[in-house]
Write a structure and sequence with these properties.
The complex is a heterodimer. Chain A is of the alpha/beta class. Chain A is 36% helix and 17% strand. Chain A contains 17 helices and 20 strands. In chain A, strands 8-7-6-16-17-18-15-19 form an eight-stranded mixed beta sheet, with helices on both faces. In chain A, strands 10-2-1-14-20 form a five-stranded parallel beta sheet, with helices on one face. Chain A has a three-stranded antiparallel beta sheet with strand order 11-12-13, with helices on one face. In chain A, α1 packs parallel to α9 and α3 packs across α8. The radius of gyration of chain A is 22 Å and the shape is globular. In chain B, 17% of the residues lie in helices and 33% in strands. Chain B is built from eight helices and 20 strands. In chain B, the strands form four sheets. A six-stranded mixed beta sheet of chain B has the order 11-12-13-10-4-14. In chain B, a hairpin with a 2-residue loop joins β11 and β12. In chain B, α2 packs across α7. Chains A and B meet through α11 of A and α3 and α4 of B.
Chain lengths: 519, 399
């Protein structure tokens, strides 16, 4: 045994890897245990039969922050943001609208919308930048706030007031709690454009454009755009995950795959290690869970080791997955009407209007699959041909507004949904159906099974206002530490939430290191 | 539970003993307790009080909240619920327990009866089902409300054992304090515990409501030979203060009902530190109580004897006559048996200690005119009244 602190990080998702690497770089002896046979969790790759590979869940992402790249030396391990991808709002008549980071274009777009869009985007990027100051650190303590946090909050207030200026500040305060539907209708006329923006506000959340708080979810998402443009995750060397794994190994993290944690060992109220499913016990004075906080507390720790009301509040964390994932193995390149070959590498979206999106969301609200779901499509093999056999392709489709607990259960319904989505895709890509070699549809329940995210929720808990900042994942565990001494959280269920940001993992590691010096 | 088809005709439910109590009631002073109509006074407070202190008093306990806790995880569930170390509790024994919220503030107190292996009954003053169910997650335990399915009588006083024996309750004298046993009264099954809220010798009888009248009648059938009197809640209030028992919800606000920050009380603040086992396994509120215990105490519900005989019901407590305000009286009684003015007072500590030279300022009326006086107080750590006969086994049947 060495006398270095032994830390166990549960789960080698991207946040788990970030946290493990940061702790190892701070001098700890870190073991990262992963239930799956590859690292990366929802950000990894998934293999279909016949030599096709697809992004596990996350198929588009913004670059991670420059700070994270610098701290973990990610660029040294080959990380570079992927090529910029536009968002193309598909139209059945081929009148597609292209939303880029600098502008919007497409047939039939009103000049007023075209000019309003860049200004609108700039304005919200400024808001996102201010909010981003809150994302870079643990949420403030409400009671007995230390001076540094007071100063940071005061600084934020000053930025809000003087950075934005009076008018923009009032506008920010006006819209921050609003729904994206009202905000977009005030500014734009084009249905495709509004749907394209609203998509980023609701994708992955059980929310429709009219749901309150969707401006906040959009700003949370837009924060990633400050690091660079969106890119399609194609699993080539330049993407995040291989770099994170190498950085972890480079920092001395021991990565153990196929090691599912059965429970967290608690001794005298303190985390003392983990017990693996195979019965092996690994002792450690520090346990960091990259698993969904609900799973962490309710199953890995167990309510009996927690105070009753805290354990009860854990069961009240909202977060039911609403996105299914369809993977298609294709014998050739799909052709979308009105889309050139060179445009196939972008993010393609089926969501003709916010009204369409809200209708789809309504179905999921009532436990039904929508007749016409919202689709987010990528063709990762367009970027990285090695994902499929020669001249073949893979397509990855996020199917939004799919209830996790489908009325009547999922038995027999998975195929029906897959058919429905494929037929909807066929309306935009007529040759698609004839190309399909194989398909796989993951319902939110399947996602839970495969990746452990409770109810298949990407973000380990809804990114609603009542589950953000010092309320994420819940009050009493919102600063990465928990009521169990020695147990910390580092998953997307923590502040500042989901997405391929690595921020929860980074903040958690900083908190752990800070707690070790001054509890 | 059988629902009385005429229940809607009464604002309050009637206990199975109601008709007998109503027939005996001279005072006609009724009050609500936990949706039941119960007697505040039946005859007169002094006669009821003295029955409990020198003979035998019988009180209807039916409205007490009763929960049955069963299952292989029952013991672990209870150990996580209450602050007390239950490791010595065994079947046939009863223990006094309190339970706290996450912040270590008292939700309620009660008596925990171990009726058999994996079989417990928890009695409390206030409704606790929500909290019990919230606390039950992760335990193999079943919780049933028995409040309305179990009729209960407190039979208290120095002659209570003799009275019950004469009434036909078998095998009673062997019960030690805090024992509970399944006994019979004639051909009726009864659960009897040697427990009570008076600090005297006494028993509590738990029975099927269908036997309630017959048990009552058997007890009151011995009236020719023994002085047995029904008792109301007013006399009980005097008895429990003499015995130094606290009443959550009256002496301090229970945590669930508290809105204002700092108005709830921890076990230490309520003077119940002796039922907190910080070093047992995890229980709700443990971390908060550990943190509190590491600090000097800020306040404590304290037993005080007030000089003189002026009723100090709503008095403030000061350190020094005309001195600095340091607390308030929460409940008070004139003790006829001790000839003393007793009170429980919530007193703020100074530097972790009870302030010296305690005084109360008493505002009182004489023929509707208000007067003010100051009275010195003496703090007590032991119960005010603890007769030796309360704990003897077998009890002296004396008197």
């Amino acid at each position: 045994m060495t006398d270095r602190t032994v830390a166990i990080v549960i789960g080698a998702g991207h946040n788990g890897l970030v946290c493990a690497t940061s702790l190892a770089r701070a001098g700890m002896q870190v073991l990262c245990v992963e239930a799956g046979d590859v690292a990366g969790g929802m950000a990894a790759q998934h293999e279909l039969a016949g030599g096709y590979r697809v992004p596990a869940l996350a198929h588009v992402a913004y670059p991670v922050s420059a700070a994270l790249r610098r701290e973990l030396g990610l660029d040294k391990y080959g990380y570079a943001p992927g090529p910029s991808a536009d968002t193309i709002m598909l139209d059945e008549q081929g009148r597609h609208l292209v939303l880029g980071s600098s502008g919007v274009s497409g047939p039939g777009l009103a000049a007023s919308d075209e000019t309003a869009y860049p200004a609108f985007r700039q304005q919200y990027l400024r808001y996102a930048r201010i909010l981003g100051k809150l994302f870079d650190n643990k949420p403030p303590a409400l009671r007995s706030m230390p001076f540094t946090e007071k100063a940071a909050l005061a600084g934020l207030g000053l930025k809000l007031r003087f950075g934005l200026g009076r008018t923009a500040m009032y506008e920010f305060l006006r819209v921050a709690g609003m729904n994206i539907f009202d905000v977009l209708n005030d500014v734009f006329t084009d249905d495709r454009l509004k749907a394209g923006i609203a998509l980023d506000a609701v994708m992955g959340s059980a929310m429709g454009p009219r749901t309150p708080g969707t401006v906040l979810t959009w700003l949370q998402r837009l924060n990633g755009a400050l690091n660079g443009p969106l890119s399609v995750q194609s699993g080539t060397q330049e993407t995040l995950l291989p770099a994170l794994v190498q950085a972890a190994e480079g920092a001395g993290v021991e990565l153990r795959l196929n090691a599912r944690v059965e429970r967290i060992l608690i001794e005298n109220g303190c985390a003392a290690g983990v017990v693996l499913q195979d019965g092996q016990t690994i002792a450690a004075g520090l346990v960091v869970s990259g698993v969904d906080p609900r799973e962490t507390f309710s199953r890995l720790v167990g309510a009996r080791h927690l105070d009753a009301m805290f354990a009860h509040r854990v069961t009240q964390i909202r977060g039911k997955g609403v996105v299914a994932k369809l993977h298609l193995a294709l014998s050739g390149q799909p052709g979308f009407s009105g889309l050139s070959d060179s445009q196939l590498g972008n993010r393609l979206v089926v969501a003709p209007s916010m009204r369409y999106m809200e209708r789809a969301f309504n179905s999921s609200k009532y436990g039904e699959c929508p007749e016409q779901p919202v689709l987010e499509i990528t063709v990762p093999s367009w970027h990285n041909p090695s994902l499929a056999p020669a001249n073949h392709h893979v397509m990855s489709v996020n199917v939004a507004c799919i209830p996790c607990d489908l009325e009547g259960g999922w038995a027999g319904q998975r195929e029906a949904l897959a058919r429905r989505v494929i037929s909807l895709l066929g309306r935009y890509a007529p040759n698609l159906e004839s190309l399909i070699v194989d398909h796989e549809l993951l319902t939110p329940q399947d996602i839970e099974q495969r990746y452990g995210a409770v109810h298949g929720h990407w973000h380990h808990g809804e990114l609603s206002m009542h589950q953000s900042f010092m309320l994420r994942p819940l009050h009493g565990a919102s600063r990465y530490d928990t009521p169990v001494a020695g147990l910390f959280l580092c998953s997307a269920g923590c502040h500042p939430g989901g997405g391929l940001t690595g921020l929860p993992g980074r903040n958690a590691a900083r908190r752990i290191i800070e707690r070790r010096t001054a509890p | 539970m059988k629902i009385d088809p005429d229940h809607f005709r009464h604002a309050l439910s009637r206990t199975p003993f109601h008709d007998r109590l109503a027939a005996l009631s001279l005072a006609e002073e009724w009050m609500a307790w936990n949706t039941y109509k119960v007697a505040r006074v039946i005859d007169s407070v002094p006669s009821e009080y003295f029955a409990a202190r020198s003979a035998c008093a019988v009180m209807d306990l039916t409205p007490m909240e009763k929960y049955r806790v069963r299952g292989t995880g029952a013991r672990q569930f209870l150990d996580r619920l209450v602050t007390r170390d239950l490791s010595k509790l065994r079947a046939g024994r009863v223990t006094y327990v309190i339970w706290c919220n996450d912040d270590g503030k008292i939700l309620d107190d009660g008596t925990l009866f171990q009726l058999g292996e994996d079989d417990y009954r928890l009695c409390s003053q206030h409704h606790q089902l929500d909290w019990l169910l919230i606390s039950a997650a992760d335990f193999d335990v079943q919780i049933d409300v028995e409040t309305h399915d179990v009729a209960a009588l407190a039979v208290q006083g120095p002659t209570s054992c003799k009275v019950l024996a004469a009434a036909g309750v078998e095998d009673l004298p062997r019960l030690k304090p805090f024992d509970v046993a399944a006994l019979r009264c004639g051909d009726m099954p009864l659960t009897v515990s040697r427990t009570g809220y008076t600090g005297d010798l006494g028993y509590e009888l738990w029975m099927d409501p269908q036997h309630a009248m017959a048990v009552w009648d058997a007890i009151f059938a011995v009236r020719g030979s023994y002085d047995v009197r029904p008792m109301g809640l007013s006399a009980l209030e005097m008895l429990r203060i003499e015995a130094g028992f606290i009443m959550p919800g009256f002496d301090f606000n229970t945590a669930e009902a508290t809105i204002r920050d700092g108005y709830d009380r921890s076990p230490y603040e309520a003077g119940l530190g002796w039922v907190v086992a910080l070093d047992k396994g995890h229980f709700t509120g443990q971390s908060a109580l550990r943190a509190e215990h590491a600090q000097p105490p800020k306040r404590q519900l304290t037993k005080i004897v007030i000089e003189g005989n002026k009723p100090a019901g709503q008095a403030f407590v000061y350190t020094g006559k005309n001195g600095k305000l340091c607390g308030e009286v929460k409940c008070t009684t004139w003790s006829p048996i001790l000839k003393a003015n007793l009170a429980l007072a919530d007193i703020e500590f100074r530097n972790g200690r009870l302030p010296p030279d305690l005084w109360v300022r008493i505002d009182y009326q004489r023929e509707l005119k208000w007067h003010t006086t100051w009275a010195r107080c003496q703090a007590r750590s032991k119960p005010f009244y603890q007769p030796e006969h309360r704990s003897a086994t077998p009890p002296e049947h004396g008197l």
